[in-house]
């Protein structure tokens, strides 16, 4: 049965997580397809995915890019691919289980049932939690969201969240190909653009758990891009 939903997952060196993530998503009663954007992972991530495509034909898809090009460009690639394939609901999710795949269903229902035009897996709305992060990382993330809300005047509690579901009409409206940010700034900019176009966000509380396997892609450069990028967003054609 064809699915109305696709989960876009960017990967770089996720061989320890990717097979378990794929099998978990495909185990749900609700059918999700998966599109993985792999940036030439040297650890063999793409080979694992290709072997699983034989087991899940038509449901598991892989787009391979040459070299590490950043999260934002991976999602833009995935959005363009997904819109061409006529999916109604397009998701963003990390490969490392910091986003619990079981929450995909709650994000889907929030959009499907009309609570929002796009839904956000939120650490900072009522009921949201963070586990296994050092306190300085939690505080940096929490106050970063406050900073973004103050600069951009949006009411979203978790402005840097990367676990989301969009109705296709949202992505059809946003000029996301104009967004050049690569890290958290990309996530912020997409939410800001959606709100600017009049789309309604729905924050769904999740428990965010720091990765167990593989290495975090967080860097000081990503943080700086987000800190200064929010001022640039106010002048962009979104």
From TrEMBL:
<dbReference type="Pfam" id="PF00535">
    <property type="entry name" value="Glycos_transf_2"/>
</dbReference>
<feature type="domain" description="Glycosyltransferase 2-like">
    <location>
        <begin position="7"/>
        <end position="173"/>
    </location>
</feature>
<dbReference type="InterPro" id="IPR039528">
    <property type="entry name" value="DPM1-like"/>
</dbReference>
<keyword id="KW-0808">Transferase</keyword>
<keyword id="KW-0328">Glycosyltransferase</keyword>
<comment type="similarity">
    <text>Belongs to the glycosyltransferase 2 family.</text>
</comment>
<protein>
    <submittedName>
        <fullName>Polyprenol monophosphomannose synthase</fullName>
    </submittedName>
</protein>
<dbReference type="InterPro" id="IPR001173">
    <property type="entry name" value="Glyco_trans_2-like"/>
</dbReference>
<dbReference type="InterPro" id="IPR029044">
    <property type="entry name" value="Nucleotide-diphossugar_trans"/>
</dbReference>
């Amino acid at each position: 049965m064809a699915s109305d939903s696709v989960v876009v997952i960017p990967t770089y060196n996720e061989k320890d997580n990717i097979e378990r993530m794929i099998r978990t998503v495909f185990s749900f009663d609700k059918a999700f397809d998966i599109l993985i954007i792999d940036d030439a992972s040297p650890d063999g991530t793409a080979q694992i995915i290709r072997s699983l495509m034989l087991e899940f034909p038509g449901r598991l898809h892989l787009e391979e890019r040459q070299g590490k090009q950043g999260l934002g460009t991976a999602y833009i690639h995935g959005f363009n691919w997904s819109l061409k394939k006529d999916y109604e609901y397009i998701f963003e999710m990390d490969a490392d289980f910091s986003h619990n795949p079981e929450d995909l269903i709650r994000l889907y229902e929030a959009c499907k049932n009309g609570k929002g035009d796009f839904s956000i897996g939120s650490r900072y709305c009522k009921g949201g939690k963070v586990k296994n992060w050092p306190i300085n990382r939690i505080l940096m993330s929490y106050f970063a969201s406050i900073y973004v809300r103050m600069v951009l005047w949006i009411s979203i509690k978790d402005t840097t969240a990367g676990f989301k579901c969009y109705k296709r009409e949202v992505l059809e409206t946003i000029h996301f190909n104009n967004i050049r940010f690569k890290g958290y700034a990309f996530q912020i900019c997409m939410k800001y653009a959606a709100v600017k176009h009049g789309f309604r966000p729905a924050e769904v509380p999740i428990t965010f758990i720091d990765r167990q396997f593989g290495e975090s892609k967080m860097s000081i450069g990503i943080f700086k891009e987000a800190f200064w990028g929010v001022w640039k967003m106010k002048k962009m054609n979104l």
